[in-house]
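Form P-L/3: holo structure prediction, ligand iron/sulfur cluster.
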Amino acid sequence: MDQKEIRLRGHHLICTGLFVGEGYSDRFSGNMSRVIRTMKEENPVVELVSSPDHICRACPKLEAQQEEGKSCKLDEVAKKDEYLLHLLAFRPGYKDTYRNIIGAVKDRITEEIFLECCGKCSWLEKGLCSYEKYLEGLK
Ligand code: SF4
Ligand code: SF4
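OUTPUT (holo model):
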């Protein structure tokens, strides 16, 4: 990945910590793997946002919205991003290195905050994501 700065939606702070290779399409999963690898290996500056980010850009749901007016309900997702960022004492537009941001998340995350983000997500219901697994990944 060539960019030195990565845009990351608020709730993707959690999703990237629980990613196990599954996603909406092979292109989506490949791109998400590359974004995560870049952040972990190169520690780039990350900008926290509440709009489409470097993970969304390979998502079929984003493409569907652009083409047909169908989407992942981007307004609702933006509200979720903003609320999660607020709970973690960040704000949209905040920038720091990936490791500094994850270090702050580690200090601030609680199960209640995790469930605000993930409590209604189908991936939690399927058992693919859990607070315990997220904490394990932060170690
Ligand atoms: S439960 Fe959903 S929102 Fe939460 S980390 Fe998993 S995929 Fe992301
Ligand atoms: S476009 Fe929507 S569903 Fe796709 S990765 Fe972004 S927030 Fe998630």
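COMMENT: Helices lie at 12-18, 26-42, 60-68, 74-87, 98-108, 111-118, 122-125, 131-138.
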